[in-house]
UniProtKB/TrEMBL annotation:
One Pfam family, short name: MazG
Name assigned to this protein: Pyrophosphatase
InterPro entries: MazG-like_dom, MazG-related_GP37
Organism encoding this protein: Bradyrhizobium cytisi
Sequence ranges assigned to domain NTP pyrophosphohydrolase MazG-like in this UniProt record: 32-95
Coiled coil: none
Amino acid sequence: MIMTIDEYAAWAATIAKVDEHPSNERLSYLGLGLAGEAGEVADHIKKLLRDDWLDKAGLVDELGDVIYYWACLCAATGQQPSELLKASAAKIKRRLSEAASR
């Protein structure tokens, strides 16, 4: 079964027990989870630089964990991930346009 990013976020929120009004503790847990998984992604990149070899499967696994925590945080803040992706793309395009016009 293929899920949209919004369906995935709704599913992940049920796993993480995220509701419409998450506690500060739950938000902190999710934010720290995201930071920890992003650190594991960075560790794979560090090892690539050190060893000149990338554990691609390990990196992909950690990227999945990053997405999980990101999706949970989207749900916890009442945001649709698809809308955040659109806003992010618009922001990047705006920055590129501004940089090109300098």
